[in-house]
Design a protein that fits this description.
The protein is mainly beta. It has two domains: 97 residues, SOS response associated peptidase-like (hypothetical protein yedk fold, Alpha-Beta Complex), CATH 3.90.1680; 47 residues. It contains three helices and nine strands. The strands form two sheets. Strands 3-1-6-7-8-9 form a six-stranded antiparallel beta sheet. Strands 2-5-4 form a three-stranded mixed beta sheet, with no helix packed on it. A hairpin with a 2-residue loop joins strand 6 and strand 7. The chain is globular. The relative contact order is 0.17.
Amino acid sequence: MCGRYSIPDPEEIPVHFKGTRIGYDIKPRYNAAPSEELPVVVNTGENHIELMRWGLVPFWAKDTSIGYKMINARAETLPVKPSFRKAFSLQRCIVPAGGFFEWKQVGKVRLCWSLRHLARQTGERTKNLYHYHNGTKQASRDNS
């Protein structure tokens, strides 16, 4: 589960997803957080990119602040959990991200655990390389 993510090159989103940009002018983001308006790819016959708020407010919610808590879901429970079932079946989108990260408290120190795609750094497009970083150690895994 991720609590933050990065959008290092938002200008490439329409190019990569062959979509048109609707109503946003966004700069690179390296700390995208829940409740913020962020670019997503929506398909209503053709791809277009628009800003949406990160967080799910279920139809039954009395208070929209519940959306701050509902930012992640497990893939295996999406079709069965009442909170996500309808959105999963009817309202999908792609969330373009250059990396994901989460903060973890270890004693008195907060460490950042991140996952980013190495193709952006190396220019290599043939392998699925990921870079894991926990604030002190770095390791790469080749998932090709």
